[in-house]
Write a structure and sequence with these properties.
Elements: H1 2-51, H2 55-63, H3 71-86, H4 92-112, H5 117-134, H6 136-141, H7 143-156, H8 161-176, H9 179-188, H10 197-210, H11 216-228, H12 232-244, H13 250-254
C-alpha cells in the first residue's frame, strides 16, 4: 500500500510537472511568435516612415531597438542614424555622434547576418562617413574595404541600383582625386586604388538600367560625369532630368 501510494503520488507529480513543462513550451512558443511579429511590424512601420521622408520619426522608432539581434532592424537603424545626421538642422557634434553610432549598428547587422546585402551596403556607406571626421588619410585607407563591401552587396543583390550607384561614386571620387591625395594613396598602398570617369559613367548607367529614375543623385552624377568627359549635350540631358526630379527628401532638394 505504501509503495502504491508512493507510485500514485509520483505519477501525480510527474503529470503536474509534464503540464507545467507543456505550458512553458506553449508560452515560449507564443513569445517567439510574438517577437517575430513585433519585428515584422516595426520593419513595416519603418519602411512606411522612410518612404514618407519622416526621418526624425523613423529614427525615434528604430533607436528603441538598438539592442536587437535582428540584422534587418539594425541596418535600417544605421540608415536612419545617417539620414538624421545629414539633416541641416542637426548640429555638428550630433552629426559626428550619429555617424559613429550608425557605423556600429551596421557592423552589428553584419555580425548577425553576413549574407545580408543591405548590411554590407550600409557598412560601406557609414565607414566612408566616419572617414570625413578622421581625415583624408583614414578615408583613403578605408577605400578598398568600402568598395569590397559594395561589391559584396551587389553580388548578394545584383538588382540593387543604389549600391551600383555607390560603386560609381567610388570610381568618380578616385578619378577626380587631386594630386596631393594621390600621394597619400601611394604612401598607403603598394598599388593605390585608381579609376576613370568612363568607369564611373558605366556604373551610373548600370544603376539607371537596374531601376530607372530611382535616385536624383544618380541623375546628377550622370550629368557631372558627362561634363568631365566634355560631352555637354549628354550632360545637359541628365542635369535637366536631375533638375526636374520631384524632391521628396532634403538630399533631393540639394541635388
Amino acid at each position: 500500500q505504501v509503495l502504491r501510494k508512493s507510485l500514485q503520488t509520483g505519477a501525480a507529480l510527474s503529470a503536474g510537472s509534464f503540464l507545467v513543462y507543456e505550458a512553458h513550451k506553449l508560452i515560449s512558443g507564443f513569445a517567439q511568435v510574438h517577437a517575430s511579429f513585433k519585428v515584422e511590424e516595426v520593419i513595416e512601420q519603418a519602411d512606411y516612415l522612410y518612404g514618407s521622408g519622416e526621418t526624425e520619426k523613423l529614427y525615434q522608432l528604430l533607436v528603441q531597438h538598438k539592442n536587437s539581434d535582428d540584422a534587418e532592424l539594425l541596418w535600417r537603424l544605421a540608415r536612419a542614424s545617417r539620414d538624421l545626421a545629414q539633416l541641416s538642422s542637426t548640429s555638428a557634434e550630433e552629426k559626428r555622434q550619429l555617424a559613429y553610432a550608425a557605423l556600429e549598428y551596421a557592423k552589428k547587422a553584419l555580425e548577425k547576418n553576413e549574407s545580408n546585402f543591405a548590411a554590407h551596403k550600409w557598412y560601406g556607406i557609414c565607414l566612408s562617413d566616419v572617414g570625413d571626421f578622421e581625415g583624408i588619410k583614414t578615408k583613403i585607407g578605408n577605400a578598398i574595404v568600402i568598395k569590397e563591401h559594395f561589391q559584396r552587396a551587389v553580388e548578394l543583390n545584383p538588382k540593387d541600383a543604389t549600391t551600383i550607384h555607390l560603386i560609381g561614386i567610388w570610381c568618380y571620387s578616385f578619378a577626380e582625386m587631386p594630386w596631393y591625395q594621390r600621394k597619400i594613396a601611394a604612401a598607403l598602398f603598394a598599388t593605390p586604388p585608381t579609376s576613370t570617369f568612363q568607369e564611373a559613367l558605366r556604373y551610373f548607367h548600370m544603376a539607371e538600367e537596374a531601376d530607372p529614375n530611382f535616385y536624383s543623385k544618380n541623375l546628377l552624377f550622370l550629368g557631372k560625369t558627362y561634363l568631365k568627359l566634355n560631352n555637354k549635350k549628354m550632360a545637359l540631358l541628365w542635369l535637366s532630368k536631375a533638375k526636374e526630379y520631384p524632391a521628396h527628401t532634403e538630399e533631393d532638394k540639394q541635388v
